[in-house]
Amino acid sequence: MRDTELTYLGHATFTIKSHTGKRILIDPWVQGNPAVPQSLKRIPSLDYVLITHGHYDHIGDAVEIAATHPSAVFVCNFETSVWLGAKGVAEANLIGMNKGGTIELDGIKVTMVHADHSCGILDEGKIVYGGDPCGYVVAFDNGLTLYHAGDTNVFSDMALIHELYRPEVALLPIGGHYTMGPREAAKACEFLQAPTVVAMHHHTFPVLTGSPEELESLAAGRWRILGPRPGDRL
Question: Could you tell me which residues come within 8 angstroms of residue 47 by beta carbon, excluding any fewer than 6 positions away?
Answer without folding.
Answer: 22, 23, 24, 71, 72, 73, 105, 106
